Amino acid sequence: MKFKNLLFLVAFTFSIAAFAQDIKTADEVLSKYLANTGGLEKWKALKTVKMTGKASMQGMDLPVTLFKKEPVKQKMLIQVQGTEIVQAYDGVDAWMINPFMGGKDPVKMTEEQALEFKDQKFEDEFIDYKKKGHEVTLMGNEEIEGVKCYKIQLIKNKNNDKEDVTEVHYFDAENFVPILQVSYVRVGPDKGKEVKTYLSDYQDVNGLMMPFFIEQKMNGQSFQKITIEKAFTNEPMEDSMFVFPKK
Q: Please, which residues have CB within 8 angstroms of residue 203's CB and are 6 or more apart in sequence?
C-alpha cells in the first residue's frame, strides 16, 4: 500500500511539473482561468450579480447584501445594530448613508473616498484586457500557503491615458482560479500599504464559479472577512436603486 502511494505521489509530482512547463504566457493562464470558471461566453453574458452573506469586522458578524450591475454600478448594504449602512456608485456619483457618521441622509463621497468605487468595473479586468489598455505579465511560479500558483502582474491602464494601477494575482496551478490578489492602498493615511485579498470556497452560480469566502489583510492582520451565503446572477435590477437619492 505504501509503495502504491509512493508511485502515486511520484506520478502526481511529475504531472504537475510537466504541466507547469506547458504554460509559457499570461494569456495561457487567463484562457484556462476563464474556461474553468464558466467560459468567456457566459462571463460576457453576465449583467447583474446579487450576493447575501456576512461581513466580519472588528469582532462583529454583520449581515451584508451586495448588488452589481454592468458596466460599473454597485451597492452594498450592511446591517449594524438595527440600522443600515449604505455605500453605492451609480456610474457618476459615489454616495453613502452612515448613521454612525453624520446622520441618516445620503451624502456624496469625496473624490478620495470615491476613487476605489469609480475604478471598479463590473466585467472582469482580464476579459479583453488589451482593449481596456491593461498589461499582463506572467511573473513565474510561487507557492501561496502550500498551493502552487502562477503569478501574474496586472497593470491597469498601462496603455491608455488613465492612472496606472498595479496588482499581482496568484492563480492556483491546478484549477486556474485566483486565490490571492495583492494591491496597494491609493489614498488616505495608509497610502502605499500592501493589501492582500484571499479568495476561496469557489461555488457554482448558474454555471459560473465564484468565490464565497473573501478575506483581506494588511500588515499580516485580517481586517475584513466576507462569507457569501447566497448568490444570484442576471436578476433584473433597476438603475434607480443605485442613483444618489434626491431630497
A: 209, 210, 212, 231
